[in-house]
């Protein structure tokens, strides 16, 4: 009489089921962690500008000079007030070089129009936001969204005296 030995192992069906389950879990993890790449990029752009604005504000106080932020439709740059010529020039520091904004990013500006600007309105590089050597800034609010119809909004703001504030989506009630 022949005795069949029982072989231990997995069948092809069992291996395929495990592979399908692992594949589904991996795709779910990538989807959950990945989120929306434009939303991550939006937050990254706003973080970069926020940190640059904080640095400009600190540099203005430390160096006893006025710095400004000039916003364009698709870019921004930092400018410095020249006491000798009484006008604004592009900042010579590499950190404050001109930077472009992605085309899908919409920036809505609410800037106090009667705030001091230190120059005539004919100045080509007249900044929208001024960081004064006293530590104050032009009162402003900048809203950043993904295009015009997005509900994801980041807001950078200051009342001119208080430190700048960054409100992220979900923080709408904060600071009001």
Protein topology:
Elements: H1 12-34, H2 37-62, E1 67-71, E2 75-82, E3 87-90, E4 99-100, E5 105-111, E6 129-131, E7 140-146, E8 153-158, E9 165-167
Antiparallel strand pairs: 1-2, 1-6, 2-3, 2-4, 5-7, 7-8, 8-9
Q: Which key terms come to mind for this protein?
A:
176 residues, alpha+beta, minor pseudopilin epsh fold, five-stranded antiparallel β-sheet, four-stranded antiparallel β-sheet, 2 helices
Terminal Cα separation, in Å?
88 Å
Uncertain spans: none
CATH H-level name... which superfamily?
Answer: minor pseudopilin epsh domain
Largest sheet, if any?
A: 5 strands, antiparallel
CATH topology: minor pseudopilin epsh fold
The domain tally reads 1
**DSSP helical segment count:** 2
Mean pLDDT: 83
Written overview of the protein:
This protein is an alpha+beta fold. The chain has a single domain (37-167), classed as 3-Layer(bab) Sandwich (minor pseudopilin epsh fold). The chain has two helices and nine strands, in the order ααβββββββββ. The protein has helices at 12-34, 37-62, and strands spanning 67-71, 75-82, 87-90, 99-100, 105-111, 129-131, 140-146, 153-158, 165-167. The strands form two sheets. Strands 1, 2, 3, 4 and 6 form a five-stranded antiparallel beta sheet that branches. A hairpin with a 6-residue loop joins strand 8 (153-158) and strand 9. It is elongated and about 110 Å long. The termini are far apart.
């Amino acid at each position: 009489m022949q005795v069949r030995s029982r072989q231990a192992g997995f069948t092809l069906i069992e291996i395929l089921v495990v592979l399908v389950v692992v594949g589904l879990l991996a795709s779910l993890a990538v989807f959950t962690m990945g989120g929306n790449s434009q939303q991550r990029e939006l937050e990254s752009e706003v973080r970069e500008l926020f940190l640059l604005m904080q640095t400009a504000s600190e540099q203005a106080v430390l160096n006893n000079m006025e710095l400004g932020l000039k916003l364009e439709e698709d870019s921004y740059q930092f400018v410095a007030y020249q006491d000798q010529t009484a006008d604004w020039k592009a900042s010579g520091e590499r950190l404050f070089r001109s930077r472009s904004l992605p085309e899908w990013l919409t920036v809505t500006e609410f800037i106090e129009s009667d705030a001091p600007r230190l120059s005539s309105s004919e100045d080509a590089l007249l900044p929208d936001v001024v960081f004064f050597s006293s530590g104050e800034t032009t009162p402003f609010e900048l809203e950043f969204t993904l295009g015009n119809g997005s509900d994801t909004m980041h807001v950078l703001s200051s009342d001119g005296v208080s430190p700048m504030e960054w409100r992220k989506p979900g923080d709408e009630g904060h600071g009001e």
